[in-house]
Amino acid sequence: MGDTYGGNYLTIVDEEGNEFELEHLDTIEYNGQVYMAFLPAQAQEAAAQEGEEDLGMIILRVLQEGGEEQLVTLDSEAELEAVYEKFMESLYDDEDEEEDD
Predict the structure, then answer these.
(1) In 3D, which of 7, 8, 3 has the Cα closest to residue 24?
(2) Residue among 96, 90, 83 at smallest CA distance from 32
(3) How many other C-beta atoms lie within 10 A of the C-beta of residue 39?
(4) In this predicted structure, what is the pLDDT of residue 3?
(5) Parts of the chain with a pLDDT under 70
(6) What phi and psi values does residue 38 have, to the nearest 5 degrees?
(7) N or C: which end of the chain has fewer CB within 10 A?
(8) Which pLDDT score, from 0 to 100, does residue 72 have?
(9) Rounded to 5 degrees, what angle do the CA atoms 63, 66, 68 make?
(10) Would you give the DSSP letter of residue 87?
(11) What are the residues facing 49 on neighbouring strands?
(12) pTM of this structure
């Protein structure tokens, strides 16, 4: 999987050669692993123009392999649910801090 960084956006290439642009939301560490949360950039822009809500978060685990960082899908539904809850806690904590300012 290749990746290109630029601002808060990341372009990933899947195993079949398809490119996807993702908007980076947050990075957390949980149970000794690093996870990153993204929104699909183009789909998110289209939804915003149509007045729709969030299209869903994509969560990937950061894997160190051969001295390089790779993003991989999560191994189990239980892992996905636990990490999703941590991201939601983190995002809501950030919103609460902004409201207190």
Answers:
(1) 8
(2) 83
(3) 17
(4) 45
(5) 1-7, 42-55, 94-101
(6) -135, 160
(7) C
(8) 92
(9) 55
(10) H
(11) none
(12) 0.72
